[in-house]
Amino acid sequence: MQNEVFLIFRVIAAAVFIATLYAGYYMFKNFEKLFGADPNIPSENASARAYSKVQIFSIWAHALFASGAFALLLH
Question: Second label for 61, Cα 20 to 30 Å away, from 18, 22, 44, 67?
């Protein structure tokens, strides 16, 4: 009985984990288009862009670990 109740939560957790993986892949492939240099901000330099990249991928990694933990917790 308990496995039937948690089945929908397992499916949702696995789907969120896969979606988070895909989001990271998409961000990595299209980083310049999404978060590249902005011509409207002339004072932005390479170190500011590198810091932004670290922040974005750090947040993505935390989301990946959290969604993976939820997916593994329910199995």
Answer: 44
Q: Domain of residue 58: give its range.
A: 2-36+45-73
> How far is residue 32's CA from residue 66's CA, in Å, rounded to a whole number?
26
Cα gap 8→69, rounded to integer Å: 16
Do 13 and 66 contact (CB within 8 A), yes or no?
no
Question: What's the sign of the alpha-carbon dihedral 44, 45, 51, 54?
Answer: positive
Q: What are the pLDDT digits (tens) for 47-68? A: 888 888 899 889 999 999 999 9
Question: Domain tally for the chain?
Answer: 1
Q: What is the pTM of this model?
A: 0.77
Check: CB of residue 53 under 8 Å from CB of residue 31: yes
